[in-house]
Write a structure and sequence with these properties.
This protein is mostly helical and 183 residues long. The chain is built from eleven helices and no strands. The protein has helices at 2-7, 11-23, 28-41, 46-56, 62-74, 77-94, 97-110, 115-129, 131-148, 151-164, 169-182. The N and C termini lie far apart (72 Å).
Length: 183
Amino acid sequence: LINIFIDNHRTQIVEHLCVRVLDYGESRFALRTLADCYKEEGNSALYDIWERLVKIDYDEADITKLLAEKYEKDGDIEAAVDFYKKALYRYINRRQSNSVKEIWTHLVSLIPEEIDFFYHVQRKISKNMGDDRSAMLMQEVYVHYKDKGDWNTSIDILKIILAYDDKDSWARKEIVECFRGKY
C-alpha cells in the first residue's frame, strides 16, 4: 500500500502510513521510507528516524556515519565517537576498505588513547580484510604513541605489525628507534 502511494507521489499519505506502521513496532521499511519523506521535506525529525533505523538495522553503515558527522558538528563528541565506532564495525563487516580507512583515521585523531579499542578492531580487520591492511592501519596509531613518547605501547604496536610481516623494513627500523628511546 505504501509503495502505491510512493509511486503516486503522495508523501503525506506515505508519511502517515509509515507512522501508523511504526506505532505497532519498529520496521526497517517504514523507517527508511519515512526517512526518505523527511529528507525530501527537509524535516528536522530525520535524525531521530535515522537513529531508530540504526538501532534495528545492523548493516546500515552510511547513515551511521552521517549521524556521527552530525553529532561531531553539533559538538557532542561522545555520541559522535559512538556512532563512528558503529559505522567502523559495519564497514568492516561489509569489507569496504576505503570507508574503514577513512573512519579509522578520524577515530585516531579523536580518541587515540583508547588503544584497547584499536587492538580489538585491528584483529577484526585482520580477520575480515587481511593482515596487510590491518598492519597499515596500526601505523597511524603508532605515530601518535611515538610522538607522545609512550615507548611501551609503540613497541607493542610494532610487534603486531611485525607479526604480520616480519620482513617489514620500516617497522624494523622503527622498533630499533623505540628501543633506543626507551633505554
